[in-house]
Each structure stands twice: as C-alpha cells, then as structure tokens.
Amino acid sequence: MTDTAIDATTTAPGTLSFDLTARPWIPVLWRDGTQSELSLREVFARADDVHCVAGELPTLDFALTRLLLALAHDALDGPRDTEHWGELWADGDCFAPLAEYLDEHAERFDLLHPRLPFLQAAGLRTAHGEVFSLNRIVADVPNGEPFFSSRMPDAGRLEFAEAARWVVHAHAYDTSGIKTGIDGDPRVRSGKVYPLGVGWAGTLGGVLVEGASLRETLLLNLIATDGGGMRWTAGDLPAWRQEPYGPGPADRPGPKGPRGLYTWQTRRLRLHFDAQGVHGVVLGYGDPLAPHNKQGAEPMTAWRRSPAQEKKRGESPVYLPREHDPARSVWRGLEALITPRAAPGGGGAEPPGSLRPGVLEWVARLVTEGELPRGLLVRTRTVGVVYGTQQSVVDEVVDDRLAMSVVLLHEQSRSHAQQAKDAVTDAEQAVTALGDLASDLARASGGDPEGPRAAARARGFAELDDPYRVWLRRLTPDEDPFEHRVRWQQEAHRRLERLGRQLVHESGDKAWAGRVVDGRKGKEWLHSGSAERWFRIRLAKALSHPFSPGDDGPPNTDSEPTPKAPR
Hints:
The protein is α+β, with helices and mostly antiparallel strands. The chain has two domains: 1-412, no CATH class; 416-559, Topoisomerase I, Chain A, domain 4. The protein has helices spanning 40-45, 58-76, 82-90, 97-104, 160-173, 214-220, 258-261, 307-313, 334-338, 358-368, 415-444, 450-473, 481-506, 508-513, 528-542; strands at 9-12, 15-17, 26-30, 35-38, 50-53, 179-180, 192-193, 206-210, 267-274, 277-285, 303-305, 319-321, 354-355, 377-388, 393-405, 515-519, 522-526. The longest helix is centred in the last third of the chain and has 30 residues, at 415-444. The N and C termini lie far apart (65 Å).
C-alpha cells in the first residue's frame, strides 16, 4: 500500500468504513496453487475452489478458520445431528445461507465502525490516552529481535485487511504479562493489569481436520450438538451477536458452545487509523478463560488428566489441553489423536488419562454411522504456540500435518488404528536401540554418552519421519493392517541399520580399540564391534525380527552369539 492509497470507504462525512463481508481480507490458497484474499461472502461462496486459509502464520490460519466455523455454525444453526450434517456434505451449495446471514449482521463486521467495530471495544482508552505500536498485535514481530523480522524495526502501519486479521489473532493468541490498564477496568492497579493468561487458542494444542477443499475442511470440523462428548447448551452465540464490549470483564456467563468459544473476547482492543490504514492500537485484557475441564465445549485439542490440578482443586477428573511439543513430530503422538474418548463397555471405569480431540471424535462418529466412507483420506493439522518468560513472549510456533485414512477412527474396526499406534511404538523402541549404540560408542572411546545418545535419537526420528507418514497414508481399509505393519518394521530396520553402520564408521579408531568399562557383571571390554553386535540384536528385537529367511533383508539375529551387555 502506498502512502496515497485510500483503503477505506467513506460512508458519511468524516466516517470511514471497511466492510469485512464485502472487502477482501481472508488470505487463501486456491486449489490451483495461487493465492489471493477474499471477503467473507466470497470465501463461503467459493469454498469448494479454495484449498485452505493461508495467512502470515499457522496460528493465523487456525484463528481465521475458527472464525469461519463460528459463522457457519450460527448461520446454519447446526448441524443438529449426523443426518443434518450428511445433507450439508451432499449439498454443494450448503453455505448459501451465509449470504443472507452476513447481510443481517453486516454492521458488526465493519472494522472501523464508530460504535460497533469488529471484535473491538469502541472508545477504548488508557487513563493517559496512550496509543501503542502495532507490534502489540502483530505476532511476527519478535519481541526484542527486530533483525529476525521482515518489519524492521516495527510494524508502523498496516492495511485494513491485514489489521483485521491481527485483531482476530490477538483474541486467540495474545501473550500474557503486565499490560497497561484500560480506563474503566476495575482490575487496574497503579495503571496496570497484572497477568491474566494468554489468548484462549494459545492454551490449546490446536487440532484441525483438513479436507481436499476449504468447504470440506469447514464441514469436517462442523460438529453437531447432539452428543459425541460435547456439552453445548442453548444460548451459544458468537461475539458479534452479543452486546458490545466495554472495558473490563463482561458481566455475562462463559461460552456455551463453539460459536462463543471460537470468538471468545480474551482481549479488549481498539485500532487507531486514518484513511490510509491503521497506525496504532490500544490493547488490554478482556475475559480470561480457565482451561480446566473445557473438553465438553472445546473440540479442537486433545486433553490430558492433571493429577496436580485434581489435588489442588479437590475434584476429579480434571482435564487440561494437551499442548504440542515442538521437539516431537505429530505422528509420534498419534495415540492421543486416534484413541477413542471412552472404550466400548467401559462404563464405571477409571476416567481415561487422555481424551482425543472432539473433532476427531466427531469424524469417527461420521465414519461409524456411514456418513463418510472408511477410505476417505484427511489431513490432521496441528497448530500451537510455545510461550516463554512467564508467557509474555512467543518462543516458537508449532505447525505439522499428518495424512491418514479415516478408517483409523472407525469405532467398530480398531485393528488398523492399533497397528498404526504399534508402529509408532516400533519406531520409539528402534530409535532407542540406535541411541544405545551411540552411547556405547561414546563410552568405548572414553566420551560422555548422553550427548551422542540424544543426537542419534534425533537422527533416527528424522530418518523415519517421511517413511512413517507415507506408510500411514497407505494404511487404507483395503490393506491388511498386520502385513502392513510388518512392511513398516522392515523399512524401519533397513533405515536404522544403515544409520547404525554410519555411526560405527564415524566413531573412529578410539572406539574401535575400545576400553574397559563397568558392566552389569563387572568389568567388560567395550569396543565398536561389540557395540554394533548389541545394536543389531536390540534393533531386531525392537522391530519383532521383521526379516524371515528368504526375505530381502538382514538375517534374523536370534541365532547370533550373545556377547556380554556393556552397561
């Protein structure tokens, strides 16, 4: 945008408008690979031609998709059940009611409205009238690290379209920390409000089911309210259908379902702008939301039981969102994604230690009830934020995808899912064998074993990352899951055995010569040859000795002489 560009519409003398229902601001990737921006009307009208939302950050994609889901839930008033959902899935024009809905609520989608600005609080100000840099809402400006940003030294001005996106993102992922107090907020002490937590989506290990188009993605995540572990109640409204927000916490109950939760106003903010764009912001705390036991209302994260919180709160069970570990690829946490929330016939049993995301519980139900074919391939996308320094800065953004057949979620046929989870266990155990080899080689040469062990494990998982994803993608209803797992074990064996040979070769002369070390049964001589023999035995055991006589692979190591185990 140039300095002379006029990006807003003048609706009355001295009044500017930027209508998000009609003006392009949602960044999308088309199915042909090109990119552009669409208005809210366009994004629903052309959802079948769009591949996905594709913004500046993965967290922005997640936040904007949740906004679109809130719109779809409210405009369609559902889905009511799986039958209603099936009708939507079969109807190529299922989002047609969104046009009339956006007409009805257009006033609340004006980014610059003087009384009802989109997801903002009109008239918001600090006690001294400060207006702050847009760095406070633009998440790709690293705090204190301008040389790693494309906006060096800061985000001085934004076009209205981009500013609208960061408004949505701020409610979802804004950092915690001490914030300047907003005039009229009863929580202000000495001009400040002390930490009240990050935006709601920032507490989640976000999970989104992606289809072949944006239309499929929205429908796959559009969950009915008639069970499935969800507890959505009447009166569930998105932010734009509620009374305007003022400074301080709102005098209203918490979210009653996805429409309220996906648009929950964790912040109070107000953009400052002129005809050329947005140049500043006032940002403060809004309505904090405690994360415990929201599994009945929040479907887009896995959940874990927290014994510490159960003891602290005096109640059981207490579930918290399962956050993503940036050091682990999504496939290594597959069990948390595909294990049902409650096993059949498990009534009265101890509550499970973890719960899979409600969106995957919903897809499982659609498959089980025949609304989706068991061979349908979907992508599970995981998005999350790792905060640092008391959640006051963003350290890392997690973004990963895993393609799999929905047969893994089928409730009546668990063999495919079990073999997929067991294949992850195979990988974990095989990589452990590789780490043990690196540790033994380091000990044989007189070095510290822990660093080489960690490095070898990282190499091992990196080596298996793409092969597992391809293997899982091919685990379809037509595949025998047991034979398919054997093929995985053989592939993992070939790759890690080759990597083990490389580690032995890299260990050098000192490891080849070896040294005497303390073992389980006293002093033992450890060298690269004995370390490699033990590695082969451990690897074969970890992968269930995948090669039979006549297979094109390493021989079964059961018959090899057993050396003394160095430890």
